[in-house]
Specification:
The protein is of the alpha/beta class. The chain has a domain of 146 residues: Isoleucyl-tRNA Synthetase, Domain 1 (Orthogonal Bundle), CATH 1.10.730.10. It contains 19 helices and 15 strands. The strands form four sheets. Strands 3-2-1-11-12 form a five-stranded parallel beta sheet, sandwiched between helices. Strands 5-4-6-7 form a four-stranded antiparallel beta sheet. Helix 11 crosses helix 12, helix 12 crosses helix 13 and helix 15 packs parallel to helix 18. The structure holds 5'-O-[(L-methionyl)-sulphamoyl]adenosine. The site of 5'-O-[(L-methionyl)-sulphamoyl]adenosine has 21 residues, from strand 1, helix 1, helix 7 and strand 11.
Length: 506
């Protein structure tokens, strides 16, 4: 059977500072989506990486006394190491200083040039190095960058331009014909901005002004503007030209996850560039709000703690769980350690974890009775079976609609239901009173539901669910599609006789 492909991307991050809770938010959610799609038997390509050219990186490297290339090499390693700690399962980590990416940028720019969409002119405007973008006087807040509230630089220089304005009608037509492309929350805003103020954009800088970038293929004295270079990572990341087979299999992206700060680049400039280069357009750009601490957008400069701090303090799964449980495509969300603690204690430690400990303890105690149960004595509890099947049947739709948070809530409802079932049936009493038939039924359904929960939660909390699968007697985690029909998964003879603690209470 041919599996459906699913190509998902995160923005590539500026590596001037290590990743923080804000960048982890996008990356963890993308990872959870990628893992769900994989679990649902999609052929997934998940791309993330680092955006290594531009003024910001150049200045940061110089400030710290580094050769720029050595600096980005070191910083990219920090990203990779942190993502590996967070169990991010990317297919490729792309760096914009890689040779194949640089070749791709040149080839695409050449195509755009040949389409007649690039011309030479003069740029005058205000530039924010932190944003790596230009602002018009109207955009500024008290003459400061509207995002960073820091002074901007007035620039005037020779530059190449991309005829973005020529794409106005094509873009509007594309949005109309592909209603899924724009994120719902920002649709009207983007469309009216495209209608009102679509101007050509500067796409290069003279080399004598900034040499840290990719030279233009039609003028070696200019380097590409960092955003033009960066956006094309989505093209080079799956092997444009270098690996035609992979490229034609995965292109175009199915889901591009971004923060709301970079909407204009991804919903306007990016599709216009692809039209100009003659490539198919992405299916969907999905944006989310910011993570804030004390109401302020988290960033290194805002003094956020390191991800290592959070990972070491709470553990990988708990941090992943909290980030996904808070996810919203509509609004900013406040990261709050107190809430993290109470939420994960209530849902993971006290409910799921506690249930697992009790169920395994009881299993271990009455192991001999359970192990010798004949298969045909096992009776399915319809209520649990239906609840589990409902979640499984809806999982893909939830993911497609970016309802990751809601999907976790649905799964947790099953966990609560299972917990209540166990408490109501009181299997420990059944065993004590030698009502073995009923006891076996309760234990069987508890463990059968648990296997399903393990598969359903694995994409979010892979570390603990991997252990749970092992305790349940599986060598490796089962994908959702690898689960057998409800009632056919558990083999009492394979379950371990232990009393596991899945989540330490915080
Ligand atoms: N390098 C560009 C993106 C190029 S993509 C072709 C860039 N990098 S960035 O390092 O500033 O990171 C941008 C992304 O990081 C945001 O769009 C968002 O996805 C994520 N976040 C960074 N801080 C964040 C929060 N405080 N909250 C949520 N997401 C945050 O822009």
């Amino acid at each position: 059977m041919a599996y459906k492909k699913f190509y998902i991307t995160t923005p590539i991050y500026y590596p001037n500072n290590p990743p923080h809770i804000g960048t982890a938010y996008t990356t963890v959610v993308a990872d959870v989506i990628a893992r769900y799609k994989q679990s649902l038997r999609y052929d997934v390509f998940f791309l993330t990486g680092t955006d290594e050219h531009g003024m910001k990186i150049f200045r940061e490297a110089k400030k710290r006394g580094f050769n720029v290339k050595e600096f980005v090499d070191k910083q990219a390693e920090i990203f990779k190491k942190t993502w590996s700690k967070l169990l991010i399962s990317y297919s490729r980590f792309i760096r914009t200083t890689e040779k194949d990416h640089e070749e791709t940028v040149k080839e695409i720019l050449k195509k755009m040039y040949e389409s007649g969409d690039i011309y030479k002119g003069y740029y005058e405007g205000f530039y924010c190095v932190d944003c790596e973008r230009y602002y018009t006087p109207k955009d500024l807040k008290n003459e400061l960058c509207p995002i960073h509230l820091r002074p901007v630089e007035k620039l005037r220089m020779e530059s190449y331009f991309f005829k973005l304005s020529a794409y106005k009608n094509k873009l509007l037509k594309f949005y109309e014909e592909n209603p899924e492309f724009l994120p719902e929350r920002y649709k009207n805003e983007i469309i009216s901005k495209v209608k009102e103020e679509l101007r050509d954009i500067s796409i290069s800088r003279p080399k004598k002004y900034l040499e840290w970038g990719i030279p233009l293929p039609f003028d070696e004295n200019h380097v590409a503007y960092v955003w033009i270079d960066a956006l094309l990572n989505y093209v080079s990341g799956i092997g444009y030209r270098r690996n035609e087979k992979e490229f034609s299999k995965y292109w175009p992206p199915d889901m591009q996850l971004i923060g709301k700060d970079i909407l204009w680049f991804h919903t306007v400039i990016w599709p216009a560039m692809l039209m100009s280069a003659g490539l198919k357009l992405p299916k969907r750009i999905l944006a989310h709000g910011f993570i804030t601490i004390g109401g302020r957008k988290v960033s290194k400069s805002a003094g956020a703690r390191s991800l290592d701090y959070y990972i070491d303090k709470f553990g990988v799964d708990i941090l992943r769980y909290y980030l996904v449980r808070k996810f919203s495509p509509f609004k900013d969300v406040e990261f709050n350690e107190e809430e993290l603690r109470s939420m994960t204690n209530a849902e993971l430690a006290n409910t799921l974890g506690n249930f697992v400990t009790r169920a395994f303890a009881l299993y271990s105690r009455y192991n001999e009775i359970l192990v010798f149960t004949e298969k045909h004595h096992l009776e399915v509890e319809e209520k649990l079976k239906n609840a589990v099947e409902k979640v499984i049947n809806n999982a893909d739709r939830f993911i497609e609609e970016l309802k990751v948070k809601e999907l976790i809530e649905e799964i947790m409802r099953v966990v609560f239901m299972l917990n209540n079932y166990f408490n109501e049936k009181e299997p420990w009493k059944l065993a004590k009173n030698k009502q073995y038939e009923e006891f076996i039924k309760v234990m069987f359904n508890s463990f059968e539901t648990l296997v399903h929960i393990a598969a359903l939660l694995y994409p979010v909390i892979p570390q603990s669910m991997n252990s749970l699968f092992n305790y349940l007697g599986f060598e490796k985690p089962l994908k959702i599609v690898e689960l057998k029909e409800y009632g056919k998964n558990i083999d009492f003879r394979r379950i371990e006789k232990i009393k596991p603690i899945l989540f330490a209470k915080l």
